[in-house]
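User: I'm preparing a small set of examples for a lab meeting where we compare how different chains pack in three dimensions. I only have the primary sequence for this one, and I'd like the structure in token form so I can line it up with the others. Please keep the answer compact; I'll paste it straight into my notes.
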Amino acid sequence: MNAEIIAVGSELLLGQIANTNGQYISKQLASVGVDVYSHTVVGDNEDRLFKTISEGFARADLLILTGGLGPTKDDLTKDTVAKFCERKLVYDREALDHIEAYFKRHNRTMTPNNKKQAYVIEGAHVLANRHGMAPGMVVQLANEKRIVLLPGPPSEMKPMFEKELLPFLLGANDQASITSRVLHFFGIGESQLETDLEDIIENQQNPTIAPLASDGEVKLRLTVKHTDKNEIKRLLDETESVIMDRVGDYLYGYDETTLVKEVSRYLDEQGLTVACAESFTGGLFASELVSLPGASSILTGSITAYTEEAKTALLGVSQKTLQDHGVVSEACAAEMAQGIQERLQTDVAISFTGVAGPEKQGDLEPGTVVIGIAFPQQPVRTIPLSLSGGRNAVRMRAVKYGFFYLLDELKRRNGSK
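Assistant: Understood. Below is the structure token output for the 417-residue chain.
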């Protein structure tokens, strides 16, 4: 099956809102092995929309339209699709009851034009709208092609897509379950991961494999459709095992986790506390940790020592180290980590020193970073990095690498790596 996504709305063409629906739907379809060949945006014009639908079906088996299902005169999607399919619009009693209840629940008067939203194309499979008023629908055509109508507001479209449309498209009526497992990777780019797994991705069947880039990380969503729960687990485990043989060193977690959550979990499970000494990151590491509930049980404290004088006074970094090696050096990062560990009597310490940019610092290029990680009774581990991006991107990436390498150390202590 291949698909085309058509976003309807003049406000999209005028740049008043972004077409985030197209991005979302593409990601969801990719995760279940449906290829999206084209994205189209068309204004609120019946003739142009009719032409766009005709051209879309010349390229695709499945058309998904978003927007234009509301009560106003410029909401033309249903009327135009009905005209294209040569079918009538009919009232859906359940949809009308839902709309009337919606107005009653919100203490609003229902105007006559809102009844327009209860019209559906004759013979369509109706998709319930649990978060708004206008229902969606799926129209099956005689040539085995389908056209889908979804509401425009993302708050309505996304739950309808996930809860109503996707199970229908994938044949929920055959009682097969659709199960996904998301693998989280860090320290490897999307292009490199796809290159390393190219043959696996190209030959995917069941499970399907969808790479997803997000916030400097890479995710792989494995999706299985099967009637047997044990077979679902076997298929997911087998596919994951093949992937791990190639890129397993970069895997850090599953499903809804993040680097921060994983570090917090390991610290909590091992009964350890952490403190951080930050220079150019300016407290970002500590800020990420305290965004999680219960951070007070693992975070002892944080010192932001930006200048050389502050590093010496607050963290005990020696003048000799600064003179011989410089502030952005493995020696300085090690003393920063040791200093915060000793002063705050914490189990684990992490330090950050670097050049955020945009200018060079002496001979050091922007993106030159050193992270130090200290555990009791063992040498400080220092990690030099060369990161790309603008000033704030370098700072955020450094913090993510800090979490990644700290997690690596925690896993080694736990014997899970």
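A couple of notes for your slides: The domain at 1-168 is CATH 3.40.980.10 (Molybdenum Cofactor Biosythetic Enzyme; Chain A). The two ends are 40 Å apart (CA to CA).

User: Perfect, thanks.
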